[in-house]
């Protein structure tokens, strides 16, 4: 075997080992990878029930309903579509209607989402990047970081 052939075999073996290691890492992480969707994307892509994901958008005005115990139900919208979210637990202090929110949990189908955690924005200028990108794509993002009004009638 010549020197050039040995070098080529060594490079090929190192590439195979790296490819195998990357495959093992991705296989091990398959249960921890969570995808982000907005309400419109869920409708358009036809997300299968039982899919673990993150759902982000704005809390729809007038949609918050409190149930027995710490059960809360609300709608997350991007002004085009909305998904009904149920959550058992304490909501963040800054959670309120019209504000940006990211929920993580399981899509139950038929526009219903069961959340394990709810994250709200922490001040008037911050919104999670995924939510801001989705709102920009929909044309509902203001340069000052706030969401656009739901309709022209909402302006004073």
Could you explain how this protein is built, in words?
The protein is an alpha+beta fold and 156 residues long. It folds into two domains: 1-31; 35-148, Nucleic acid-binding proteins (OB fold (Dihydrolipoamide Acetyltransferase, E2P), Beta Barrel). Helices cover 28% and strands 29% of the residues. It has helices at residues 3-29, 39-45, 129-138, and strands spanning 35-37, 52-59, 65-66, 71-77, 82-88, 100-109, 112-120. The protein has a five-stranded mixed barrel. A hairpin with a 4-residue loop joins strand 3 (65-66) and strand 4. The chain is elongated, with a radius of gyration of 22 Å. The chain starts with a helix and ends in an 18-residue tail after the last helix. 20% of the residues are buried.
Q: Helical element count?
A: 3
What overall geometry do the principal axes of the alpha carbons give?
elongated
CATH class of the largest domain: Mainly Beta
Largest sheet: 5 strands, mixed, barrel
- Terminus-to-terminus distance: 83 Å
Q: What structural class should be given to the helix and strand makeup?
A: alpha+beta
Which bin fits the share of residues in helices? 25-40%
| CATH superfamily caption of the largest domain | Nucleic acid-binding proteins
Binding site for heme: 122, 126
Keywords: Cell membrane, Cytochrome c-type biogenesis, Heme, Iron, Membrane, Metal-binding, Signal-anchor, Transmembrane, Transmembrane helix
Region (Disordered): 134-156
Pfam families: CcmE
